[in-house]
Every structure is written in structure tokens, then in C-alpha cells.
Amino acid sequence: MLLFLIKRLGVMVLTALVLTFVVFYLTNLYPNLEKLAKTQANNRMTDAEVATWLDNRGYNRPILARYGEWLGVVPGWTRTDDNGATTGRCISSKVPVDVASRFCGVVQGNFGFSSVFKEPVSTIVNRRLSLTGVLMFWVMMVMVPSALVIGVLAGMREGSRTDRSLSTFSIITTATPEYVSGVIFIVVFSSSAVGLKWFKGTATSAMDEVTFANFTLPVMTMALYGMGYIARMTRASMAEVMTLQYIRTARLKGVSFPKIVIKHALRNALIAPFTVIMLQFPWLLTGVVVVETLFNYKGFGWTLVQAAGNNDIDLLLSCSIVAVLVVLVTQLISDIGYVYLNPRIRIT
Questions:
Q1: Are residues 319 and 190 in the same domain?
Q2: How far is C-alpha 262 from the geometric centre of its chain's CA atoms?
Q3: Most Cβ neighbours (<10 Å): which of 88, 218, 250, 324?
């Protein structure tokens, strides 16, 4: 197991480096840098003024050197002007030249400064990610148990009326995207069009205090979409397990049907859905983009949209790091859990 973890961690680090470099390269293309210069300085800047602005801030340096500085494995750039004033990546009004360190990147915990929100990126990401974490927690609490119950009930008696009804419901929820179901929920349950003003059509107040009224609709919107996929996978796995020889043997021995399902079939039936459930975490992290924007819940997804729309390079890069890490960590947990659930798998 230790050797397996070391290998996987090595692959994770290599994958993270490749993916972050791709995102860094794309966000630092010249059109994006030109837009950043004009946004921060003057929209009527000439090409020469843009080049000077970028050069004064270290943006015209080689991409590999800048990527190393951003990671914190290459010393940050410095520049001394004609008046003798020194500026650089690690130098600011709060960090003068005499106390500034040579390295100030991601490894040192410096994720940069947001050009839109005017505060450190790490502060923004931590605050917004915590809000999204609350949303993801309640979505998983609603989605996973409901999906497993639906899938198990449908797979217990394959081909029955219950199976067909629950399978149809699962297909409908999976086929309906979040922006459609979210709008339907708002119209039906929070607007005067229908008259059922049971919940609030916005989740802005949930950032301060989560209540049943302001958090139900965004949770339902995300849970329903992911529920159908997990339920279908659980149903297929359960139906397959119920046809295996050891289940037939248990039936012939007179074991009760509920005991067969709970004691013998359920563990093997959960092997495939477990992997699917773990994959929901990265999906939720990116899926909240639509839901948080629709319900004006200013979490990670809303921040990602703002960073991309306003060309906030440092914030966009930090959001990409979080997304990459969530995907890689959930994949690792999924692989380890799959081994424990399925004794036939051997780690090499």
C-alpha cells in the first residue's frame, strides 16, 4: 500500500504541474495580458505603453521563468528604475526591499493579488471555497442516500413496475441540466407566477446564515441532477449482483429476501457506485458555477466566473489549482476505497 501511495502521489504531482502549466500558459497569452494592462491602467493605451506597462511588472519575461516564479521555485524578478527605486515580484508596499524574500510563489503560500477584488487571492479563495463547501455538503447529504435507495429498490427486482418507474425518474433528472431545473424551481416555488412562495429565489442570505427557505432550491437543483446518474449506476450494479450464483444459493437455503439484499448483495453492489460518488466532488466543484450564478450565491463557482470574466489572472490560476487538487485527491480516495470494497483487486 505504501508503494502504491508513493507512485500515485508522484503521478498526482506530475499531473498537477502539467495542468497548472497549461492553464498558466493560456491565461498569460498576450491578448489577456494586453487586456489586463488596459483594465488596470488606461483603456486608450497605445501598444508601446502596453509593452512598457507589462515590462515594468515582469510580464514580458520567458514563460517558463514566470511559471517557476509563480510556483515559488525560481527567485522572483526585480527591477531598478532610473531613480534607483527597486520593484519586484516579492516587493510591495507592505514588504520592502530589505525584508523581501527571494522566493514568493505557491510553494511559499503566496497565490498573488486579485486585480478585481483588491485583496490577496488566498483570502478570497478560502472564504469562497468555505461557502461552496457548505453547499456541497448538503447536496451530498441529500443526493447520495436518495440515489442509493432509488438504485437499490430498482435493482432488487429488475423489470418490475417499481424498477421502470424509478429508472424513468432517474433518466429524467439526469437529462435535465441545472439551469433548467433551477429556473423551474424558482418559477414554481418562489415566484408569484404559480403562487407557491415556499422558498427564496436567491441564496444570497445563505452566505450569512443557512436556512431551509434560502438553501433548499440550490441544494435541490444540484442534488436532482447528480442523483439520477448515481441511481442508474447503483441499479445496474444491484441487478447484476442479484443474478450471481451465491445470491441464488442463499435463496435456495431459505434466507429472507431483505437479509439477502442487505447482508450479501449490497456491499458488492456498492463497488461501482462508490467510484461514481467520488467523482461527484469535482463535478460539484465545477457544477456550482451555474447554480451559484443562478441563485447569486457567491461561492467558488461565482468567483471562478468573476475571475474569468474580468481577466483576473492570479485568481483564475488559484481556482484552477483548487479544481486540479480536488480531482486528483478524489481519484486517489476512489482508488483506495475501490481496493477495500473489492478484495479481488490487488495493489502492485
A1: yes
A2: 33
A3: 218
- Specify which residues 87 forms β-bridges with: 79
pLDDT digits (tens, 9 = 90+) for 69-96: 888 888 877 877 767 677 777 777 677 7
Grid coordinates representing 60?
514580458
Q: How many structural domains does the chain have?
A: 3
* Residues 163 and 301 occupy one common structural domain: yes
Residues 106 and 23 both lie in one domain: no
Cell matching residue 35: 487586456
Shared domain check, 250 and 228: yes
Kindly report, residue by residue over 280-297, the tens digit of the pLDDT.
887 777 778 888 888 888
CA distance 153 to 140: 20
Q: Are 19 and 324 in contact (CB under 8 A)?
A: yes
- pTM score of the predicted model: 0.80
What is the residue range of 212's domain?
121-341
The three grid cell numbers given for residue 152, joined into one nine-digit string: 437499490
Give tens-digit pLDDT for 174-218. 888 888 888 888 888 887 666 677 888 788 888 888 888 888 889
Closest CA to 115 of 310, 327, 309: 310
Cβ within 8 Å of residue 271, ≥6 positions away = 237, 338, 341, 342
The closest of 311, 303, 300 to 115, measured between CA atoms, is 311
Q: 306 by DSSP, 3-state: which?
A: helix
Q: 313 and 173 in one domain?
A: yes
What are 157-178's pLDDT values in tens digits? 777 888 888 888 888 888 888 8
